[in-house]
Amino acid sequence: MSRYDLLRSQLAAQPRRWLITGVAGFIGSHLLETLLTLDQEVVGLDNFASGSKPNLGDVRARVSESQWARFAFHEGSVADSETCQTACAGADYVLHQAGFVSVPRSLENPLECHETNVTGTLQILLAAQKAGVRRVIYASSSAVYGDDPRLPKTESMIGRPLSPYGASKWMAEIYARLFQTQLNTIGLRYFNIFGPRQDPAGGYAAVIPRWIGQLIRGETCTIHGDGTMTRDFCPVADVVQANLLAAASEGQGASVFNVALGSSTNLLQLHALLSEAAVSLGLPTPQPAGHGPVRPGDIEHSAADISAVRKILGFEPTPDLAPALRETMRWYARQGPKAP
Questions:
Q1: 165 is catalytic
Q2: What does the alpha-carbon distance between residue 32 and residue 197 come to, in Å, rounded to a whole number?
Q3: pLDDT per residue as tens digits for the range 7-39
Q4: Which of 54-63, 175-184, 217-226, 329-338 has the highest mean pLDDT?
Q5: Nearest by Cα to 303 from 158, 151, 161
Q6: pTM exceeds cut of 0.90
Q7: Catalytic choice (93, 138, 145, 165)
Q8: Residue burial 251-285, b: 16+ Cβ < 10 Å; e: rest
Q9: pLDDT digits 0-9 by tens, 115-139
Q10: Which residues are paired to 141 by β-bridges?
Q11: Residue 175: CB partners within 8 Å, gap ≥ 6?
């Protein structure tokens, strides 16, 4: 039995109280679904800036009514002190997922990015410390590696940020370390996360839901650049695993870990995998991809060293990308031709 399987059994036997910020978002809603299926008590916080009520509705449809009754929702912003204190009250663990996650939008609106990612994280840390929570797990990003060219990325490699988004995530990590004598924190540097409920206009691996929508409608996908740009794509189920393992870990103080598959896929390969998934689901015959300019703020290559998260937390990544891509496309296909 894996460490994650054992943890799930332990949680089901001894429920805890969890706060998920950004609960109506892509990752937050998957954390909610998993915790409710384990009969946990969950408080959710979201202001619907990027999350959506349909995401919560999708979770509700996937759990029992008794499990849904264990969920309490607060609408509000993580940048508000009183809101954070109310949400943190009585929580054993905080899974801080609320965030401004778009690199292009952070270039257009750096102040909003800072308010959510830096001020919001600081407010959660202060509220969690006051409430006496056991541990705060917060979402960081591979964007903190910036212009450091070395691959694969290990947790010590910090370069110059290439966007306000990357800078804000690095600042959030700095604040988390400042709290290490009073509060246990673990940061998870997400690479390119994908899965059902992902907003194609959001961050992380937004290329995947955007291309899936185009493939479902029989449209041409656009590759930004020549297609050799690489990403370490990671299913959202692995992010859920990493969050729960981090919350239950025995380590003390501040730590940070990469969360990814530990492998790279270039955009040409990704398009081929998604095209194969479309064919297997009986969708329209995929069109050859077109090409467009590279987007400002995008890094050229991305690959994670996940040896630390595997050794210390017991994280076991998904062994094959294709089934998760196929399941993601199946979910979007059920939403109809207009989604995403």
A1: yes
A2: 13
A3: 999 999 999 999 999 999 999 999 999 999 999
A4: 54-63
A5: 151
A6: yes
A7: 165
A8: eeebbbbbbbbbebbbbeebbebbbebbeeeebee
A9: 999 999 999 999 999 999 999 999 9
A10: 190
A11: 118, 121, 122, 125
